[in-house]
Amino acid sequence: MSLASLPLFVRLGGRPVILLGEGEPAEAKRRLLDRAGALVVGEDAQAALAIVAIGDEDEAQAAIARLKARGVLVNAVDRPAACDFTLPAIVERGPVIVAIGTGGVSAGLAAALRQRLETLLPAGLGALAEGLYAARSALRARFPDGAERRRAIGAALSPGGVLDPLAGDTDVDGWLSQAGRPAAKVEAFVLTSTDPDDLTLRQARALAAADRVYHRADVPPAILDRARADAVRIECDALPVEPDDGQIVDLTMDRRA
């Protein structure tokens, strides 16, 4: 399954961004750029990004063409086909930013999802992120092995874990003082559907946490895409040796499905 676009977080503090247009659509984009610390400039300025919020179709298309001819990446308000990048709906908790995008297809859907997430994410989520950042040296000292460190953090942040991000506990130092070595884990699943939406919650969580994914050749890429991007994927007919460390997922398709 290919991505329609690659989500990126761009630091705009002090950087110029071209904004063209007037009225509320342009003002809404200006407010967003101001929050990000961008320098809002006109069309003639040198910039890598531009937002076109011009109402008149011919005028807007002409501006888009001029900007793209210069190599500027363009966001065209209400014209998704002309967009090189889109601006997502945002949920912000300090340094934690959750961005919801639909590729410009439906701003209303993105806004509805943002409102739902606003009620789910606790106010202390930013403090938890800052606590984990401050504890980086202590984490490296406690878990020198990078994979083991990631598993320990993953276990603490898992649903019901000591630092479950939806529970509001932000005592990173308290957890770290008592944290033990994360146990190795091997999970095997027989999949009955090629649709990733049919994964059980347990299967989805295991894939998201796995260090290595052993899979048969007929397991579809859409399922494997639910694993972390840096998880090692190994195509094989059977799990060769039961590993003694790490989080391992072994996937088999039910050929009768």
From TrEMBL:
Its EC number is 1.3.1.76. The keyword RNA-binding does not apply. Keywords: NAD, Oxidoreductase, Porphyrin biosynthesis. One of its GO terms (molecular function) is precorrin-2 dehydrogenase activity. The keyword Cell inner membrane does not apply. Pfam families: NAD_binding_7. It catalyses: precorrin-2 + NAD(+) = sirohydrochlorin + NADH + 2 H(+). It is an enzyme of class 1 (oxidoreductase). Pathway: Porphyrin-containing compound metabolism; siroheme biosynthesis; sirohydrochlorin from precorrin-2: step 1/1. One of its GO terms (biological process) is siroheme biosynthetic process. PANTHER family: SIROHEME BIOSYNTHESIS PROTEIN MET8. This is precorrin-2 dehydrogenase. It comes from Sphingomonas yabuuchiae. The lineage of its organism: Bacteria, Pseudomonadati, Pseudomonadota, Alphaproteobacteria, Sphingomonadales.
